[in-house]
Task: structure prediction
Amino acid sequence: MRTVSLGVLLTFLLAGLALASGGSAKMSPQEALKEVIQHNDRFVREHKAEDFSAYQTAQHPILTLVTCSDARVQTEALLPEAIDRVFAIRNIGNQVGNSQGSVDYGILHLHTPILLILGHTHCGAVKAAMGDYSGETPGIIAELDHLHLPLSRGPKEGDFEKRWLQNVEENVHYQVKQALRAYKEKVAHGELVIVGAVYDFINAYGKGFGRVVIIDVNGEKDSAKIRAHQVMSLLSENLKAVCTK
Ligand SMILES: [Zn+2]
Result:
């Protein structure tokens, strides 16, 4: 019994290590496709035609989301059912400039009241941009270059974990700034609020594993001022405290 438990534990540890270093789960293409198609088949059988009727001809998102492509960051952490609710744009490092047209579509055509720019702890794109990525593909270099500019001003020495998180935050602030420039009129008219946040699956902020921590609202970075912002007015004091720094 003891041997089995240790074996299982070791398997989990090794799987965790592979994922942490950027590896992928060991799976053949046919196994991966089977998992997807089988899940989709369950999805089809579990839903009725009426479930799709509300959005046959139009979408109704409440949120334009710019987040990282990282597999550990998913909309389940934001809403129980993201279908027809989240207009999602994803790229490495949750960048606005790389996907400006898609962000424009969510803000200017779908008129979502919130643009959420969501970075995350242990972001591989931010980590890569902190070092030498000249050996990467031209595509990756072109995307990371958008991160490197703001990050290059950050400290080069000191505790790496701290600097990594600091750069994740700096990148979120930078992307909010870009968005503010693009949608300043909508923000000025109160039709749009740009929220910058960090999805924290390592509990770096001590607010709970999986917490969305808001660090920027329309360019305001001060936590007390964020908590006092109109956009937070429907949240309880307890929620205000846990979702900010
Ligand atoms: Zn990332």
In short: The chain has one domain: 60-242. The pocket of zinc ion is lined by residues 68, 70, 93, 120, 123-125 (CB under 6 Å). The chain has a mean pLDDT of 90. The longest strand covers residues 193-200.
